[in-house]
Amino acid sequence: MAEVVLKRSAGNLLGNSYTTEFHKGEIFRDVLDQALTTHEHVNQKDLSCQGEDNATRTIRVSTAELKGDDGKAAGILVQAQDVTEWLALEQCVRVADKLSALHTLSAGVAHELRNPLGAMDLNLHLFEEELKDNGACTERGTRYLQVLNTECHRLSVILDNFMKFARPESVGLHEVDIVTLIQHIVTLMQFEATEHKIRLIGETDKLLPSVVGDEMAIGQVLVNVVINAMQAMPHGGVCRIVSEVSQIEEKSWLAISVKDTGVGIDKPVLSKLFEPFYTTKPSGTGLGLAIAYRIMENHGGTIRVSSQPGTGTTVTLMFPVPIREARAV
After folding, report:
1. N or C, fewer C-beta in 10 Å, the chain?
2. Does this model's pTM top 0.70?
3. What are the tens digits of pLDDT across the range 182-240?
4. Which CATH superfamily is domain 174-320 in?
5. Spatial strand order in the sheet of 198-203
6. What count of other Cβ atoms lies within 10 Å of the Cβ of residue 12?
């Protein structure tokens, strides 16, 4: 386990001083220096470090003084555990709890608002026709009515999003060719990307397995994520859609990552991204990522976001890969 956490082999470490193996600034060097020089120990402290793939990992570290048979100090004992996946799962559970608490509320609010909004929209159109028939509709009055019609339509769109969040459409399960879907989305959004001086690149392996799900729903999530990535690059940049198969706890997952070189996301904002109605956009409803989270949940998958301010953001969609052969249980 130590080799896994440290990403180094025991043969290269055993018998050597920690000062030669860990450079200043590395989390294990700092923890050991502190324990040996000031006798200050840490207990279940979460520390961040960069992995070989530049992904941020969270290592939970504890230290204790190691004593010999004579009771004298003989060194320092370090316990380290990679808890990145655990923390991600904890975050997923917290988000799921918040979403489930708001599903019923959102459905009720949307239903109660839709009826009066429909009546307002209908009567607004009748009022407009009445004014036109009587020749009493001035140019300024026409502009006012246009604003009212536009805002009624916007409210209707928001309510539609409420309903999608509260009661998402049923997932039609069938095999989805992810490679073809990604190519379609790249082609679909290439023009808009070019207009904003963004290079949109799809990097997929042609041998990727299919996933079971709803192609339209998965496409909706991908388009939403790509649009967010492009909006994070107001002065242009690169957006890559990368897909690969990974093994987590003896289970195969198809990971689709959308990586941008945009402004990045501050850490306090990261924890709120999937909360309904939370948005940093002036005209946003805060339901886009909440709906995407719900769609991924319905597919038995997850959606995760990692970001560093100023260097870009990576959004990863994880889909379970279906088992092709029967296995003994």
Report:
1. C
2. no
3. 998 998 889 889 999 999 999 887 778 888 888 888 988 998 899 989 999 999 999 99
4. Histidine kinase-like ATPase, C-terminal domain (3.30.565.10)
5. 198-203, 237-248, 251-260, 312-320, 302-308
6. 11
If you compute the radius of gyration of the chain from its CA atoms, what whole number of angstroms results? 27
- Give the contacts of 308 (CB within 8 A, at least 6 positions apart): 56, 264
Q: Which fold has domain 2-82?
A: Beta-Lactamase (3.30.450)
Residue positions counted in the chain = 329
Tokens of 122: 């209908």
Query: If 0-12 CB within 10 Å is exposed, 13-18 middle and 19+ buried, where does residue 218 land?
Result: buried
User: What's the 3-state SS for the chain?
Assistant: CHHHHHCCCHHHHCCCCHHHHCCCCCHHHHHHHHHHHCCCCCCCEEEEEECCCCCEEEEEEEEEEEECCCCCEEEEEEEEEECHHHHHHHHHHHHHHHHHHHHHHHHHHHHHHHHHHHHHHHHHHHHHHHHHHCCCCCHHHHHHHHHHHHHHHHHHHHHHHHHHHHCCCCCCCEEECHHHHHHHHHHHHHHHHHHCCEEEEEECCCCCCCEEECHHHHHHHHHHHHHHHHHCCCCCEEEEEEEEEEEECCEEEEEEEEEECCCCCCHHHHCCCCCCCCCCCCCCCCCHHHHHHHHHHHCCCEEEEEEECCCEEEEEEEEECCCCCCCCC
